[in-house]
Amino acid sequence: MITLAVDTCLGACTAVVGRDGAVLASLSETMMRGHQERLAPMVEQVMQAAGVAFADLDLIGATVGPGSFTGLRVGLAFARSMALALDIPCAGIGVLEALATGREGLVLAIIDARRDQAYWQAFENGSAVCPPAASKVADVVDFFSGRGREIIAVGPGAAMVEGCLPNARIAPVEAPAPEALLALAARRDPGTPLYLRTPDAKLPGGKVLGE
């Protein structure tokens, strides 16, 4: 099975092409904005580098969040449009699970959600311990306090718990690894956006988008 997976939810834009879970070509660029302009050219580059034609694709995966509202929509819209045009499935990839993929033991996948909040989820040897959530950092610390074992805090928000969890090993990364994107895309979960809180952007009169 040949898969194209893209990630535009966090501080990077990533495109990867793989066959049966093995990476054929990947490209990732650090960026907080501009995913929409860079995604299509990057996809074309990795397809050429992998020597794969678009007609050869069997599956397209895209990260569904949590993360940037604009970013995740860019990736999902691109993946859904391409999947529709090629008549192939489009799979959703949870960003928190992708951050934790490939790490053994007790893992905290965490993203800075601003306003002293974090998007986070706990995993034990790859299996979810709790559902994804948006919480105060203090609540995240309370969840892990007293466990008496090493915790791996991974993701762009890992530094938020540094010094708060004595047993935590901090592993700050900007975005999921390409291999993780391919592995989770293969499960073919529905490509449904994961919004853990309403957007910060407001309409005239103070009404929040999505209300």
The H-level CATH homologous superfamily of the largest domain, spelled out, is ATPase, nucleotide binding domain
Low-confidence spans: pLDDT under 50, at least 5 residues?
206-211
- CATH fold-level name of the largest domain: Nucleotidyltransferase, domain 5
> What is the CATH architecture term of the largest domain?
2-Layer Sandwich
Radius of gyration: 17 Å
Helix/strand/pairing class, anyone? alpha/beta
Series of H and E elements: EEEHEHEHEEEEHEEH
Beta-strand content: 25-35%
Count of domain modules: 2
Tell me the overall shape: elongated
How would you state the average pLDDT, rounded? 91
Structural notes for this entry:
This protein is an alpha/beta fold and 211 residues long. It is 27% helix and 31% strand. The chain folds into two domains: 2-95 and 176-185, Nucleotidyltransferase, domain 5; 102-171, Nucleotidyltransferase, domain 5 (2-Layer Sandwich). The protein has five helices and eleven strands. Strands 6, 7, 8, 9, 10 and 11 form a six-stranded mixed sheet that branches. The N and C termini lie far apart (41 Å). Residues 206-211 have low confidence and may be disordered.
Question: Which SSEs are present, and which pair or pack?
Answer:
Blueprint: E1 2-7, E2 12-19, E3 22-30, H1 35-50, E4 59-65, H2 69-86, E5 90-94, H3 95-100, E6 106-114, E7 117-124, E8 127-128, E9 133-136, H4 137-144, E10 151-154, E11 168-171, H5 178-185
Parallel strand pairs: 1-4, 4-5, 6-10, 10-11
Antiparallel strand pairs: 1-2, 2-3, 6-7, 7-8, 7-9
Helix pairs in contact: 1-2
